[in-house]
Design goal:
This protein is α/β, with parallel strands linked by helices. Helices cover 35% and strands 10% of the residues. A hairpin with a 2-residue loop joins strand 5 and strand 6 (157-158). The radius of gyration is 22 Å and the shape is globular. The termini are far apart. Bound molecules: zinc ion (ZN). Zinc ion is lined by residues 53, 55, 84, 183, 267, 296.
């Protein structure tokens, strides 16, 4: 105790104008855990896996970049990457030529629709026909970005997720037997007041444009997407980011129970299962046929956190992005049987054209 003034004096000297411990704010606070418990870091998945939620942009698809992506996939044991940023028409063909044509088994590419001219009378049929052409060209699914429901407007206002002009597109996916991966909305905390009680306070400070007010509400966006899933029971929907309900798994379960044509993928939400390992493990056990591995942002070193949450029973280990989660994580310790479904079995069942020989025979 007696040398504390001496140490804090050194601290001030060492960091110059930065704050002292007495004044430090949340952003500087990085406590180093003193907990000693068994640790089982996992840098390579136990089974080959399909990343159902990834983005590779065609502008960055040089031969060298694509080769490097495949080398990184090999290191992670990622057998197949689903690239959701395929675009449509000529763009899509460029993405396919630069990635899938060179590594046919390692990439699945999803197409994206255009909302241009949505108020034109031929838009619904034209867009469905374009998607059919995209699937013929090699797309293995459709990806809807979150602009639908939030940032797509026609002359009359916001285009709702359940806008009937998109019905022929959803129906077409069902008819062709390819899934629709759909991302609607944002984490619910973005609608809450940006105050000291908000779990995403730091994110809203670093990214103030993510703050959402009023219309549409979080619940309104849930309602609109559920209308689509109900109306198109023949179409399989992969709901991105656990529907932003990974912090309320019982509510998510009510939608999965009602809507057998839906599954969820876990892109960018691993910090939520990882803070409720017992409840989340029960969810994964009950819905083991409805959950897909996915990550979203392509940062190979971050996958280790996903593997550790899913595979181990480690305790109180760090997450990698403080603005998502300032808390530490716990492993779910899923069984091999469930891991195989989440890592590849479920995606393989839903996405056509995946090479079965990449995965264990049973
Ligand atoms: Zn994404």
């Amino acid at each position: 105790m007696t040398f504390r003034p001496f140490l804090s004096g050194l601290f001030v000297l060492a960091i110059g104008s930065l704050v002292t411990a007495q004044e430090m704010g949340f952003e500087e606070y990085e406590p180093q855990s003193t907990l000693i418990v068994p640790e089982h870091p996992v840098t390579r998945a136990k089974f080959p896996f399909i990343d159902a939620h990834n983005h590779q942009w065609r502008q960055r698809m040089s031969t060298e970049n694509v080769d490097q992506v495949v080398r990184d996939m090999d290191d992670l044991n990622m057998a197949v990457m689903v690239n959701l940023s395929g675009g449509s028409g000529e763009e899509l063909q460029e993405v396919l030529a630069k990635s899938k044509a060179r590594y046919p088994d390692r990439f699945a590419v999803f197409a994206n629709p255009s909302y241009d001219g949505i108020d034109e009378p031929d838009y619904p049929e034209r867009t469905a026909a374009q998607f059919e052409a995209d699937v013929k060209a090699g797309a293995q699914g459709l990806k809807i970005f979150k602009n639908l429901g939030m940032y797509v407007f026609d002359p009359l206002g916001r285009v709702r997720v359940d806008d009937p002009r998109l019905d022929p597109l959803w129906a077409k996916a069902g008819e062709l037997g390819v899934p629709v991966l759909i991302h609607v909305g944002d984490p619910a905390q973005f609608w809450l007041p940006h105050d000291r009680f908000n779990e995403r306070w730091l994110e809203l400070k670093e990214r103030p444009r993510r703050k959402r007010d009023g219309d549409p509400s979080f619940d309104q966006l849930i309602k609109e997407q559920v209308n689509v899933y109900r109306k198109h029971p023949q179409t399989t929907f992969i709901i991105a980011h656990f529907m932003w309900l990974a912090n309320d798994l019982d509510r998510l379960a009510t939608y999965l129970d009602e809507l057998p044509n839906t599954v969820v993928e876990m892109g960018a939400i691993i910090y939520d299962p990882g803070r409720q390992p017992r409840h989340a493990r029960k969810f994964f056990e009950k819905y083991q046929d409805r959950i897909l591995m996915g990550k979203d942002t392509w940062a190979p070193e971050e996958y280790a956190t996903y593997f550790r949450v899913l595979e181990t029973e480690d305790e109180y280990f760090p997450y990698y992005r403080k603005r998502h989660a300032f808390w530490r994580l716990y492993g779910l310790g899923l069984s091999d049987e469930i891991l195989k479904k989440v890592y590849y079995g479920n995606a393989q069942r839903i996405i056509p054209g995946i090479d079965a020989s990449l995965f264990p025979a049973n």
